[in-house]
Amino acid sequence: MARLRIEVPPFFKREPLHTQLHLEGNRLVLTCLAEGSWPLEFRWLVNDTEIAPFSPENRYFIPVLHRSDAGFYQCAVRNRQGTLMQRRTEVQVAYLGDFSESAERRLSVREGGAVVIEAPRVGCFPTPQVTWLREGRKVSPSPRVVVTLENQLVVMMAASGDAGTYHAQVMNERNGETKTGPPIVLTVRDAEDPGPSDFLEIVVAPRNMSVVAGAGEVSLECVPYARPLERVAVTWRHNGGPAITSGVGDFGRRLTVTSPSAADAGRYDCEVTLGPRGPAASGGAGAANGVAAAHPVVRSAYLAVLEVPFFTVEPRRRIMGVVEQALEIPCQAAGLPPPTLTWYRDSSPIGHFGDSRFRVLANGSLLVASLEEKDSGMVQCFVRNVAGEVQTHTFLTVTSFPPNITRGPVDSTAIEGTALTLPCEVSGAPKPAITWFKGGKAVPLSSMRFSLLPSGWLRVGPAELRDAGIYTCLAKNYRGEATARARFTVWVRTRIAVPPRDQSVEKGMTTTLHCGVTHDPAVAVR
User: Fold this and answer.
1) Percent of the chain at pLDDT above 90?
2) Beta strands 480-491 and 412-415: pairing type?
3) Which of 2.60.40.10, 3.40.50.300, 3.40.50.1820, 3.30.70.3340 would CATH assign to domain 11-95?
């Protein structure tokens, strides 16, 4: 007894991580966990370029990982049912390269002024941790010395003790590698003019930032400089609202937003003011007599909270379609920023086929105007934005079936000179072609008396005696054919050949009136 084999299209047991970090020099092994009817074949791409053609091997090896191997990797799996693509995974490579400059750098600052020392650029991923050294000793942050989020060293109210040779020591926390940058020599000049006593500026302004919703935290930074420094006050505001009190640290210079959500997006203002002079500076009893600086300094930055795309409408895992019929496959998604949507059929973008039957609707759904059997396979909807990507898919089966006559002709009779229609209604995919035969010969549709209606019915009229016979309806497509037949009888029209004549007869006598009639033998005339 033969066993029925059910073909299972490919599917992934597990999607890969959005990102994965590996150390340079290590071995990289990527595995595509997929199942379905065998044989299965696998293909690998990086940044949408093929790096390994289809083969039975479901793993991809890089024996020694280099920083140039970083990118977006993706596997595709296929079997006889179709091809399915996996969501991309970003492979990040941790490394520490060389400094872009090696020469000594010299800076100078006026005594009592402020200077921002930029860390030397170095090739590194992820961003290195920087420790600043002066004359070989670690520089400790203080109210007047700041190490910023960008690893800048800010020295305010510079004094002669700040002069010297500085080095930036960078460390990649992932691989533990450490390097020391070229020397930076800082000279502190004597201040001929100390400048105004109520001086206020922002030396490091907050920067526009973006973060994925739900990420651990994001920090904004604002480093003010003032004379005297102890009178400076920093206030953070969100979208012009009241002062923010939570998440503020590092003498007010840093604002940290934990688990950011859409509500945290918007403008953040760093408002810097000088506190009152005299007793007010220390909060003593004479605070009411202090005098505050007149004009605060404000710098703003925008925080964008991104949202990984998510589906609001997905197709069923299996969809059936019929040849020549239209089909709409739904796919709708949301995210921040609004994501882009791309359709694939068996791992190839729909647009690459150049087939006008395929059209993406305004709501994201895919419309196939007239299905063909070759359209069967895996259909995927990928949705992407800068925060990430998601994919959903369906297995499309396009079916065809042989003709079936749902209403065929029946034996019919018509009187000579009248019209009659013989029905022939069919189903089938693709739509069957209908041909009528009379006695084994095709009905001459070129004749004015015969016409094939859009419904497939045959109209005969005005009927003649020679039209009588066996009529056959043949419905045919590439899957097969079906026939139905019926007898069509044409009766001779009954006519009065010899009409009766006017006669006169005497009362009481008998006379005969004659009426000559021609008629069909099957008709009784009385």
Assistant:
1) 80
2) parallel
3) 2.60.40.10
Report yes or no: 403 and 481 within 8 Å, Cβ to Cβ.
yes
pTM: 0.78
The C-alpha atoms of residue 510 and residue 492 are separated, in whole angstroms, by 34
Alpha-carbon distance of 55 to 475, in angstroms, equals 45
Q: What are phi and psi of 243, to 5 degrees?
A: -60, 140
Residue 281 pLDDT exceeds 50 = no
pLDDT tens digits for 228-258?
A: 888 899 999 999 999 999 999 999 999 999 9
pLDDT tens-place string over residues 131-143: 999 999 999 999 9
pLDDT-derived band at 526 (thresholds 50, 70, 90) equals low
Query: DSSP per residue over 77-115, as a string?
Result: EEETTEEEEPPPEEEEEEEEEEES--S-EEEEEETT--E
101 vs 151, 201, 418, CA distance in Å?
A: 17, 30, 103
Which of the following CATH numbers is that of domain 314-398: 1.10.357.140, 2.60.40.10, 3.40.50.360, 3.40.47.10?
2.60.40.10
Q: Are 191 and 111 in contact (CB under 8 A)?
A: yes
**b/e 485-523 (16+ beta carbons within 10 angstroms → b):** ebebebbeeeeeeeeeeeeeeeeeeeeeeeeeeeebeee
User: Could you tell me which CATH number the domain at 401-491 has?
Assistant: 2.60.40.10
- Report helix, strand or coil for 518: strand
pLDDT in tens, 313-324: 999 999 999 999
Does residue 3 carry a pLDDT above 90?
no
DSSP-derived secondary structure letter, 372: -
What's the confidence (pLDDT) of residue 133? 97
Closest CA to 42 of 7, 73, 6: 73
Q: Are 67 and 93 in contact (CB under 8 A)?
A: yes
